[in-house]
Amino acid sequence: MRTGDRLALVRPETTVLDTLMAMTRAHGGSALVSDADGKLLGIFTDGDFRRHVAEGRDILRDSVEKHMTPHPMFIHDTAYAAELLKVFEKKQIDDLPVCDAAGHVLGLVDIQDLPKMKVL
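Now predict its structure.
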């Protein structure tokens, strides 16, 4: 699970440009958006960015909240690796937030991390 410097975690008012920079620093393809208490509000991915740019929109100065996927799917920190694999396969996603029972962000699992976790 990605945490600390490997996790791009931003607030809803963060600009898309600053969100992209956070993703770059974390070497990831997504950023989790949380409120001041750390509760998960949304996810912003490389795909979200590309789709908006492909529409010819200049979104870099917009808040990430305008372009994130709100209320994203997430997995609880008590879930087993097999559950994680089922979600990746069924939903065809690459990044999955990990939250505690109250919905607070604990980290993120990127599908690229699975071989390192010896899950695949």
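Helices lie at 16-25, 46-54, 81-91.
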